[in-house]
Specification:
Radius of gyration: 22 Å
Bound molecules: flavin-N7 protonated-adenine dinucleotide
Number of helices: 14
Oligomer: single chain
Shape: globular
Structural class: alpha/beta
């Protein structure tokens, strides 16, 4: 019987060799990125699901930024690593020949175990736009808590599969407010540069930006921001801008220029699969189990930890339960995944010595969305590049950094759309709910008010200057603010509180947190570069002292 964990999206049985032969463009993008050669991609010795009863030196829970950094650096230090990932491998095309579903034509590949899409922009012109889809282990999870929906990537590569690729290093002067116990000189001298290199961060050519039709929406955003006196900044990205240039002239298959975002980019984006994970696999010391979900980590009688793992099928049903022993375990399941696991394990007495900081300090990075209605003489363009490349920086004056985001609908909307990252002091806590057997998060929608206030310092002024108004048709009927969601969950196992200053969990030798759960709720900009840089810093110390 074939092994379901080796399947991609299950649409079509295409051998890996045939897939590679038929999609040179994908490998072309990887080669352009200069990260991994075709031979390494073809070998893929890492695609071996873990066996029941296996004993491993290091087990990493999750394959996002933190997990990928840990796996690569440990492997380079000579340690065998096994990564457990609840989502799919995303390495096999579907019936349409593409690995990922298109943004405007979401199919079963789009959402994690839902029968209806849950789009961040739920409405257009006042009409709901969500639609029925088959239940499937799709790529984007819209995880609902009582006061907030948290969007997360599911699959090998975690959030890097679905995100906008904006690779922002926070201003050095802001860093101490983000992570007060971390040495600023070390971060900016060593670990941010290392993270940027590892991620393949690159910069847009400003001259090209100035002329290309697909960034008209961003140029309108710049013109209006500058007319109101706001600093407008270009933002680096992990999307290959050279590939994007070729897309724009029709020389290569289109992804960003075709509006692909949220459900994966078929070409051009240097997700972790093409950077850290590709390098980790190339060491021959890292293996990965997709469609495997960790449910428990308990001290083992002979030392180390017993990890319970549920293997699932693409319907989300458990097909096997495996028990594995690991000497060391890295929690890298993302802020929500790591926090949920640790909160449950402490509350149910499996890891009772974890301290009382577990589950605390969770924030939404102050995310809030809004749209503005432009005049008819200010079109934002029918074709919009899905990778944001610029932002309005009003952090110091108003507590908001607004990315000028695309609205890639394929039609002219005359709308400017923004995702603001704001200074929101509210922090929530995860707690175990014995009655439901689930972990709750006590965030309240009303706690977004400081974020709305901060965003208004930018957009009220722009609207007044331009004589324009907010769009009220994107998040419901007559609703201006997208205040029900976040793309940037952070915290829940905060550095130097739930863990020591390098991510070692208090109470248990050999248990580590190495993902966004370490960051106390806000980074002042988009978070994945900071998550990566902090992971680089912590793993270096752990390799030097704990192995
Ligand atoms: P993450 O990347 O979420 O990886 C965690 C992994 O663990 C996932 O693959 C999970 O499926 C897996 N997992 C969870 N629980 C388990 C379990 N029990 N067993 C096994 N596996 C498990 O964590 N950030 C930016 O900096 N720039 C952007 O432009 C940007 N755009 C975004 C757009 C969207 C739509 C979204 C959703 C996010 C965006 N982000 C962006 C946020 C960014 O992707 C996120 O901060 C990082 O991915 C978090 O990295 P972690 O390593 O913490």
């Amino acid at each position: 019987m074939s092994d379901p964990t080796r399947r991609g999206n299950g649409f079509k049985s295409v051998s890996r060799r045939r897939f590679i032969a038929g999609t040179g463009s994908i490998l072309g993008a990887a080669a352009l990125a200069g990260q991994v050669g075709a031979n390494q991609a073809m070998a893929d010795p890492a695609a071996a699901p873990i066996d029941n009863g296996a004993q491993v030196p290091v087990l990493v829970i999750g394959t996002g930024y933190g997990g990928s950094v840990a796996a690569l650096r440990l492997a380079q230090a000579g340690v065998d690593v096994h990564m457990i990932e609840m989502g799919m491998a995303w390495d096999t095309p579907g019936a349409d020949g593409k690995i990922f579903s298109h943004t405007t034509n979401a199919d079963q590949r789009s959402y994690w175990l839902r029968t209806k899409t849950k789009q961040p922009l739920s409405d257009f012109l006042g009409f709901p736009i969500d639609k029925a889809i088959p239940r499937y282990t799709g790529i984007l999870d819209a995880e609902e808590f009582s006061g907030i929906t948290v969007y997360q990537g599911r699959g090998v590569g975690g959030g890097s599969l679905v995100n906008g690729g904006m690779a922002v290093t926070p201003g050095r002067e802001r860093f101490s407010a983000v992570l007060p116990s971390v040495n600023v000189d070390e971060m900016y001298g060593v670990y941010y540069p290392r993270a940027n290199t590892g991620l393949g961060v690159n910069h847009i050519d400003p001259a090209w930006f100035d002329t290309v039709p697909c960034y008209q929406y961003a140029r309108v955003g710049r013109k209006q921001a500058q007319r109101s006196g706001f600093p407008f900044v270009f933002v680096p990205n992990v999307y290959d801008f050279e590939y994007m240039k070729q897309e724009a002239v029709g020389a290569v298959p289109k992804s960003a220029v075709d509006g692909e975002i949220l459900y994966g980019n078929n070409y051009g984006k240097k997700s972790l699969q093409k950077t850290y994970i590709a390098q980790a696999k190339a060491t021959g010391k890292v293996s990965i189990s997709p469609l495997h979900k960790v449910t428990s980590v308990a001290p083992a009688s002979g030392g180390g930890y017993t990890v319970t793992i549920e293997q699932i099928n693409t319907n989300g049903d458990t097909t096997a339960t495996k028990t594995v022993t690991a000497v060391k375990v890295f929690f890298a399941a993302g802020s929500v995944g790591t926090s949920k696991l640790l909160t449950k394990l402490k509350a149910t007495g499996v890891l009772p010595n974890l301290n009382n900081e577990i589950g605390k300090g969770w924030g939404d990075n102050g995310n809030v969305m809004c749209g503005r209605a432009n005049h008819l003489w200010d079109p934002t363009g029918k074709v919009q590049c899905s990778m944001p490349s610029a932002g309005i920086d009003n952090w110091d004056a108003g507590g908001a950094f607004a990315e000028v985001a695309p609205l890639p609908t394929g039609i002219e909307t005359y709308a400017s759309f923004y995702l603001s990252i704001t200074k929101n002091p509210n922090r929530a806590q995860f707690s175990w709910n014995a009655a439901t057997g689930k972990v709750d998060l006590n965030w309240q929608t009303a706690w977004k008010q400081p974020s709305i206030d901060a965003a208004k310092t930018i957009f009220d002024k722009i609207n007044a200057k331009e004589g324009t108004i907010y769009r009220t048709d994107l998040f419901g009927t007559y609703k201006i603010w997208g205040d029900h969601l976040t793309y940037h969950p952070l915290g829940g196992a905060v550095l130097n509180k739930a863990t020591d200053n390098y991510g070692r969990l208090h109470g248990y030798t050999g248990l580590y947190v190495i993902d966004g759960a370490l960051i106390p709720g806000n980074t002042s900009v988009n978070p994945f570069v900071t998550i990566t840089a902090l992971a680089e810093r912590n793993i270096e110390k752990i390799i030097a002292t704990d192995l």
